Amino acid sequence: MSGTESSDYTQRLARLESSGIKRLLPTQAPYRWNLKRLALGRVLDVGCGIGRNLLNCGPESVGVDHNATSVATCRERGLTAYTPDELARAEDCGPGSFDSLLCAHVLEHMDEELGNSILAQYLPLVKPGGSVVLICPQEAGYKTDATHVRFVDFDGLRAHAEKAGLTVERTYSFPFARSVGKAFPYNEFILVARTPAA
């Protein structure tokens, strides 16, 4: 996770959120729609950053991030977010207390072993039979961030799901067809899975 723990990284996320065409057009609208149609209920947003996705999750949802500055930014936005140590102490965030886990634009920042470890750490907080959504950027998006260390495609997401004991329900490219991801930096690989039922 080299470089993602600094306040500079938080500032970069904030700049990107309102730069260029994003100042003029509702570029996040398709991604908001996609999250809402998944009907994820109370979400644990792992690697929540400054809350871009958390803003579009259910009102009782919670973010966790290792960057304390990003967590503070989420709180300034009225969101509930914790560092890992704070989450471990939060009374309403124990085992099985979330309907789903979202891990968006996180796994590409770490090696496979650490990615598996992060998922293993937080999956017990999701109720049996709950949803898990893993999202990573496609080629053009991967190249836009120097803190990306590993390209994670559909096969990579499935490998993480298998290691975590999840049942994959579907994978899809969003918002455009897979071929667009080589040129369009905001195309994503998305995997939707379920935790084992009780």
From TrEMBL:
<keyword id="KW-0949">S-adenosyl-L-methionine</keyword>
<keyword id="KW-0489">Methyltransferase</keyword>
<dbReference type="Pfam" id="PF13489">
    <property type="entry name" value="Methyltransf_23"/>
</dbReference>
<dbReference type="GO" id="GO:0061542">
    <property type="term" value="F:3-demethylubiquinol 3-O-methyltransferase activity"/>
</dbReference>
<dbReference type="GO" id="GO:0032259">
    <property type="term" value="P:methylation"/>
</dbReference>
<keyword id="KW-0808">Transferase</keyword>
<dbReference type="GO" id="GO:0102208">
    <property type="term" value="F:2-polyprenyl-6-hydroxyphenol methylase activity"/>
</dbReference>
<dbReference type="InterPro" id="IPR029063">
    <property type="entry name" value="SAM-dependent_MTases_sf"/>
</dbReference>
<protein>
    <submittedName>
        <fullName>Class I SAM-dependent methyltransferase</fullName>
        <ecNumber>2.1.1.222</ecNumber>
        <ecNumber>2.1.1.64</ecNumber>
    </submittedName>
</protein>
